[in-house]
Design goal:
- The chain is of the alpha+beta class.
- The protein contains 19 helices and ten strands.
- β9 and β10 form a beta hairpin.
- α11 packs across α16 and α14 packs across α15.
- It binds flavin-adenine dinucleotide.
- The site of flavin-adenine dinucleotide has 20 residues, from β1, β3 and α13.
């Protein structure tokens, strides 16, 4: 049966059925085995060496990376014709998730397999791909991605690194400086972004670290991910052969942005692995530690924390795999037109830019929440460098900063959705205007005798209506100037994220109903999640409305937002206790 697939951002105005979404429970045997191989690798090669890695041992990290390449883990995203295993996007995300439990190894591994390798696969010429990709896919070469400069971080196109064609026309002479480069200490290849002559936009180059004039700085002293090499790189009259220009002249900024979409969405999967480990560490500790003559896992306050960790994690996971499958299907369609897996993949990922930014922000903040509660559940031991949760707390923080800061990504969530709607991908503005003009009649629409799932779907639909009201109101007040009203954009982004994740959770649990005998604990999760989300959507809507509406209009809109975010009260204490009790009984995250 045909699946209904929404375009990026279209979830704001359209719905899909549970049967239309992919859920982690759909993983096949091969996917489960690949995930198990990644877990086995972490157990055998990474965890026993964690203390040495933490000393920023470049040689050791390089060895472990190479070993993961020899075992085939680096070739998952690379098509077979270039020496990889050509796995689906869902499988790539599952590998990103599983390796995400590997602390700084995970950062080094993901930088190599993602931003270090894939720009060449996606944008390289046949010769460039044949020359570099098979060796990157096995770990014979290790890769880095060099965009950030001292003066060019979030404003990535403002870099000063410069390339000039040599007099004989055979080389570009590269001069400049990059900073915060992951894997800099041992990478063999670098994808470097620089402006040719006085170009307005960047171009991209494949630079080999062995080229004369490439100088690698010492590693930065970092708060976390201490095992990953992060350093500055200097380019002093480096002669880069003209055939190493990646893509066309001036195409570098587009390449950089597309690769960031890919990095973001994979980060959304990556944080799931770290979060699952932190939840398991939390419950195991809570099941061992006794105070006041009892295991601390028996205390309601600890159960509340454990359940909150589970609910946020399970909900984020639902959103991650929902969009991953949408991307897979779009890759298949695009490949029919262009015949090239690499190009089709990056176009499909870039299409889902709204969801990529949502997963990046939501996932990184989910992990920070879970890591923080994991430390708290461990009490004083959570503050000890002997414990994995202490490392998790420090390591998780970077996820809100790299692959575009969460501030930049929040702006992108709204900006990209609005641009896609303006392009005609879906009718956002017409629906928003109609709703706004009818604001007096909005009630939130309680339906007599509606089923459990119909009621939850109505709540999610109401969240969407709240967003549309705010978008129309904000556009009406600020016009094109809305893009300068970042506080309001943040409010709208927060509502969009909560709504996408709530809906993904709802669709997953509705599907689970036909797959599992007893879904009561999953319904508890949905109850708790929607109850909490309603509060976030309501607060964000109120903040936005008071920021753009005059007093009379604000009163009407606030009443509508209030009605649209009203959900039935539930016994959150019991719901959370039941979720926690399953976790406590399983003694690890097994949802
Ligand atoms: C450990 C680590 C590894 C990294 N790895 C790599 C790598 O491999 N390759 C690479 O190229 N880069 C890498 N980076 C760089 C990273 O991507 C940048 O640090 C990030 O993009 C932010 O840039 P910045 O540090 O210059 O911060 P800034 O851009 O100076 O931002 C400072 C603050 O201002 C906010 N801000 C900036 N602009 C706006 C705006 N328009 N609106 C609202 N708020 C704004 C930011 O959100 C942030 O809170 C890495 C960084 C770290 C720390």
């Amino acid at each position: 049966m045909e699946r209904k697939i929404l375009k990026s951002g279209e979830f704001l105005v359209s719905n899909v059925e549970p049967k239309d979404v992919f859920i982690p429970e759909d993983f096949n045997e091969e996917q489960r085995m690949i995930a198990q191989s990644c877990r086995d690798f972490l157990e055998a090669e990474v965890y026993p060496r964690m203390a040495d890695l933490e000393k920023c041992d470049r040689v050791l990290m390089k060895q472990i990376l190479k070993k993961s390449g020899e075992l085939g883990l680096m070739g998952i995203s690379v098509p077979e014709e270039f020496g990889g295993f050509g796995q689906s996007f869902v499988t790539q995300m599952l590998v990103a998730e599983t390796t995400g439990a590997g602390f700084s190894f995970s950062v080094a591994f993901m930088a190599h397999c993602g931003i270090g390798t894939l720009p060449i696969l996606y944008y390289g010429s046949r010769e460039q791909r044949e020359r570099y990709v098979p060796r990157l896919a096995t770990g014979e070469l290790l890769g880095a991605y060099c965009l950030t400069e001292p003066g060019a971080g979030s404003d990535a196109n403002s870099g000063k690194t410069n390339a000039k064609l040599s007099e004989d026309g055979n080389h570009y002479i590269l001069n400049g400086q990059k900073m915060w480069i992951t894997n800099a200490g041992f990478a063999d290849t670098q994808v470097v972004f620089a402006k040719i002559d006085n170009d307005r936009v960047l171009s991209a180059f494949i630079v080999e670290s062995s080229m004369p004039g490439v100088v690698i700085g010492p590693d930065e002293h970092k708060m976390g991910i201490k095992g990953s090499s992060t350093a500055q790189i200097y380019y002093n009259d480096v002669k880069v052969p003209v055939e190493n220009l990646l893509g066309k002249r001036g195409e570098g900024f587009r390449i950089a942005l597309s690769i960031l979409h890919m990095g973001r969405i994979k980060l959304g999967a990556n944080v799931l692995g770290a979060a699952k480990k932190a939840v398991t560490d939390s419950v195991r500790y809570a099941n061992e530690r006794k105070q006041f003559g009892m295991l601390i896992s028996a205390f309601g306050a600890i159960k509340h924390k454990l359940a909150s960790q589970v609910v946020k994690l399970f909900a984020t996971e639902s959103a991650v795999y929902r969009v991953s499958k949408d991307i897979d299907d779009l890759i298949v369609n695009l490949k029919k037109d262009c015949g090239d897996t690499g190009r089709a993949t990056i176009e499909a990922i870039s299409h889902y830019a709204v969801e990529a930014a949502i997963l990046k922000v939501f996932g990184s903040e989910m992990l920070d929440f879970i890591a923080d509660e994991a430390v708290q559940i461990h009490g004083g031991m959570g503050y000890s460098a002997e414990m994995d949760v202490e490392r998790c707390y420090r390591d998780s923080r970077i996820n809100r900063i790299f692959e575009g800061t969460n501030e930049i990504n929040r702006l992108l969530v709204v900006d990209t959705a609005m641009k896609r709607a303006m392009k005609g991908d879906f009718d956002l503005f017409g629906k928003a205007e109609a709703l706004y003009n009818d604001v007096d009649n909005i009630t939130g629409g309680k339906v007599r005798g509606e089923s459990y799932f119909a009621e939850k779907a109505r709540y999610v639909d109401n969240f969407k209506q709240t967003i549309l009201l705010c978008i129309h109101g904000a556009v009406k007040t600020f016009g094109k100037g809305l893009m300068n009203e970042q506080e309001v954009l943040n409010n709208i982004a927060d509502m969009m994220m909560e709504t996408y994740v709530s809906e993904s959770l709802l669709l997953r649990i509705a599907r689970l109903e036909s797959m599992k005998e007893d879904i009561s604990v999953y319904r508890d999760m949905l109850d708790v999640y929607i109850y909490d989300s309603a509060e976030t959507v309501r607060k964000s809507a109120f903040d936005a409305i008071y920021s753009f509406a005059d007093e009379d209009k604000a009163a009407l809109l606030i009443k509508a937002a209030d009605d649209l975010t009203r959900v039935k009260g539930i016994n959150v204490k019991f719901a959370r206790r039941r979720i926690a009790d399953k976790l406590i009984e399983d003694n690890s995250y097994k949802f």
